[in-house]
Amino acid sequence: MASNNNKHFLVKYLECRHNYAARSNGYVLDGCGEFCPTGAPETLESFICAACHCHRNFHRKVEVEVEDRVESPIISINHPSHGTC
């Protein structure tokens, strides 16, 4: 079976790193584990997290390499005949 391998990157935004105590030289995070967009794609609301209400830039960005596999169909040349020749 022949296959073509194309590599793409999937971008995920994980835990929020917004430090709420930065003004007082502290370190307090809200505990948000993964970015969840508030609005529909390609709207301004899609950049705000529904869980913590922070901008997407506060969340840790991770790029994961994904391999797309496009497989070609298998054609059998030794197909059994049904009946006599």
From TrEMBL:
rRNA-binding keyword on record: no
GO molecular function, one term: transcription cis-regulatory region binding
Key words of the record: Metal-binding, Zinc, Zinc-finger
GO BP terms in the entry: regulation of developmental process
A GO-annotated cellular component: nucleus
Domain annotation ZF-HD dimerization-type: ranges: 13-62
PROSITE patterns listed in its UniProt record: ZF_HD_DIMER (PS51523)
Record InterPro entries: ZF_HD_homeobox_Cys/His_dimer
Keyword check for Zinc: yes
Protein name as it appears in the record: ZF-HD dimerization-type domain-containing protein
